[in-house]
């Protein structure tokens, strides 16, 4: 309907189809079913009265089928949809089921790589890491739902100083691992970092170990890889609690061993990096940032290879980005890492593995904190300087603010994450959720509900905040049944399912609709538009807001439009169809957020 209306508006107003489509919105109150604000932009451009333009355009519009009339309200043009339209909508929702809301037409070409959360493999996830994981997962779900092929990639830094310190502690401090391995290793890392700061002997030994680790076939490198993979496995136990899964793990050590040399030679060949002869960057390979975007920076140039021949983090990231787009000839080899609870195999890079179908993306989305904005801009600039304009444009930095402790950030070295791990947050959520469940629900059913609600409450609370804003997490808000929370939406879904389980899906008809029925159906009608907007801008909070509005309108329908007890059989059947459509729409929307739509609560 949006496409048909946009076409009719464009023809009557003499504007491009895209402009007409952007003007279409869902009006509030009694002002029609769909509205167009096209006269605002047109009046500004043509210097005419928007109200007069609205009257003129409304008189010229050829109404599509199932649109009853067009009326002018000030500068707006409002359209009223027929009862037959809503009947068709109900039939469409029932027919499409779990695919309702997905983009119509052919699947989109190409592949999008979404990289997240790329946590150092020497500690557990804290709640700052969780935001990265949940944002990346929700974006991947949105893109897949709209027809894209998505590769979920994790990029653990197993060659950094932090991992070398943990490896040294594992070898020298003694003590048998107890409990969850990533937590044990992280607690030990806090102790090692204290030794590293004060003991020169430890510093020397750690740096020697780091150098040895860089040689992939050394004994130390192999031992460290075992340690790292054990930590990542423990981190993924945390991920699975929230329904977060991956396709492939690319270890930084394998970037260095399998593709880095080719990538650096390509950068040199293309003149994207230069070897500085003098100055503060003497003997370093440097990417010069000469575009206007970097003009006001005091030191815009970025070192990719230090004077001692070692690569910087950005240097590795640039080469990794080249691989993601399929620019390099060399590739990784892969072997299975683990079978995940969703049944999918997660693969890992492995020098003794086999070839795999990864990389070669048409778009890359790096979910990384806002503090990495400059290095991410450097990567795009280097791609441009190499002549890869399209790849630079399709390099997306999905930046986000962190979840903070009072007025400070989490520090792995200082151990400020202790007490704020994702596992501890989850366990506290299960405990609080279980306390809210009615006493007559017991045993496994009680536990299942508590687990689902805890995961959902945390997920929703984190993802509902726009990425650019900091999160202040509050349990009372996250677990509220009064609104603005996952449990509020889940409870509305459970209500709808209870009616569906008792009386079925009903049968749609073209009966006149009560106001509450029409408002709910108008919201269901807008689901695909909400999905398209959220996917296009990579902003899953749009779906959170949609869920809250949909649940509120469903609850209004539930309270003022009796369904099962309705005496008129045709009205009852139509309301059952409306209930079923709301049920499908709520479930699809919750699934996009990685939230289980419970059938009872």
**What is the second-level CATH architecture of the largest domain?**
3-Layer(aba) Sandwich
What is the number of helical segments per DSSP (H or I, 4+ residues)? 22
Uncertain runs: none
Please provide the count of β strands.
14
What's the CATH first level of the largest domain?
Answer: Alpha Beta
Main structural class:
alpha/beta
Number of domains: 3
Any overview of this molecule?
The model has no long low-confidence stretch (mean pLDDT 92). The protein has helices spanning 2-13, 17-22, 38-46, 50-60, 83-96, 127-145, 161-172, 181-198, 200-213, 219-241, 252-269, 313-324, 373-385, 389-393, 422-436, 443-464, 475-478, 486-503, 515-525, 527-537, 541-560, 569-592, and strands at 24-25, 34-36, 67-73, 76-81, 111-115, 149-154, 248-249, 274-275, 285-287, 302-305, 334-339, 345-349, 363-369, 395-400. It has three domains: 2-81, Arginyl tRNA synthetase N-terminal domain (Gyrase A, domain 2, 2-Layer Sandwich); 116-400, 3-Layer(aba) Sandwich (Rossmann fold), CATH 3.40.50; 437-592, Isoleucyl-tRNA Synthetase, Domain 1 (Orthogonal Bundle). Strand 5 (111-115), helix 6 (127-145) and strand 6 form a beta-alpha-beta unit. It is of the alpha/beta class and 601 residues long. It is built from 22 helices and 14 strands.
């Amino acid at each position: 309907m949006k496409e048909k209306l946009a076409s009719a508006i464009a023809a009557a107003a003499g504007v491009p189809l895209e402009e007409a489509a952007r003007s279409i919105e869902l009006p509030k109150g009694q002002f029609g079913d769909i509205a167009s604000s096209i006269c605002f932009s047109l009046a500004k451009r043509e210097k005419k009265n928007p109200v007069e333009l609205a009257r003129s355009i409304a008189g010229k519009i050829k109404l599509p089928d199932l649109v009853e009339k067009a009326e002018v309200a000030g500068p707006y043009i409002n359209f009223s949809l027929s009862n037959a339209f809503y009947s068709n909508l109900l039939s469409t929702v029932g027919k499409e089921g779990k695919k309702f809301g997905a983009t119509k037409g052919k699947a989109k070409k190409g592949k999008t790589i979404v990289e997240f959360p790329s946590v150092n493999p020497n500690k557990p996830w804290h709640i700052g890491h969780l935001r990265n994981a949940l944002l990346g997962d929700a974006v991947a779900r949105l893109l897949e739902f709209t027809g894209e092929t998505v590769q979920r990639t994790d990029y653990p830094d197993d060659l950094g100083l932090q991992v070398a310190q943990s490896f040294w502690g594992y070898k020298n401090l003694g003590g048998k691992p107890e409990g969850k391995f990533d937590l044990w290793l992280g607690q030990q890392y806090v102790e090692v970092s204290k030794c590293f700061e004060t003991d020169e002997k430890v510093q020397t030994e750690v740096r020697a170990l780091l150098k040895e680790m860089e040689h992939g076939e050394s004994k130390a490198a192999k031992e460290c890889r075992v340690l790292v993979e054990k930590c990542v496995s423990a981190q993924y136990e945390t991920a699975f609690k929230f329904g977060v899964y991956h396709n492939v793990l690319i270890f930084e050590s394998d970037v260095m061993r399998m593709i880095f040399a080719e990538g650096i030679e390509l950068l040199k060949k293309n003149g994207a990096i230069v070897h500085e002869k003098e100055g503060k960057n003497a003997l370093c390979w440097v990417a010069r940032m000469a575009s206007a975007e970097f003009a006001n920076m005091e030191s815009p140039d970025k070192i990719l290879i230090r004077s001692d021949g070692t690569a910087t983090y950005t240097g590795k990231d640039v080469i990794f980005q080249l691989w993601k787009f399929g620019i390099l000839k060399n590739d990784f080899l892969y072997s299975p890492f683990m079978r995940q609870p969703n049944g999918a195999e997660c693969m890992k890079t492995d020098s003794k593995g086999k070839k795999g179908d990864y990389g070669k993306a048409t778009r890359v989305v790096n979910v990384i904190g806002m503090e990495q904005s400059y290095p991410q801009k450097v990567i795009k600039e280097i791609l441009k300087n190499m002549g890869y304009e399209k790849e630079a444009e399709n390099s997306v930095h999905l930046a986000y603010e962190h979840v903070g402790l009072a007025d400070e950030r989490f520090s792995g070295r200082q151990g400020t994450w202790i007490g704020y791990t994702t596992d501890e947050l989850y366990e506290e959520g299960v405990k609080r959720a279980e306390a809210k469940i009615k006493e007559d629900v017991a045993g496994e059913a009680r536990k299942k509900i508590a687990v689902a609600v805890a995961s959902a409450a945390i997920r929703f609370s984190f993802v509902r905040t726009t990425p650019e804003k900091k999160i202040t997490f509050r349990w009372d808000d996250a677990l509220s049944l009064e609104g603005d929370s996952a449990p509020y939406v889940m409870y509305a879904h459970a209500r709808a399912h209870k009616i569906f389980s008792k009386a079925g899906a009903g049968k749609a008809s073209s009966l006149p609709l009560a106001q509450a029925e029409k408002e709910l159906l108008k919201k269901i009608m807008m689901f695909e538009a909400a999905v398209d907007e959220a996917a296009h801008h990579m902003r899953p909070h749009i779906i959170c807001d949609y869920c809250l509005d949909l649940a509120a309108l469903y609850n209004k329908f539930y309270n003022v439009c009796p369904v099962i007890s309705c005496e008129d059989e045709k009205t009852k059947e139509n309301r059952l169809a409306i209930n079923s459509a709301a049920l499908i729409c709520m479930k699809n929307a919750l699934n996009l957020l990685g939230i289980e739509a419970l059938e009872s609560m």
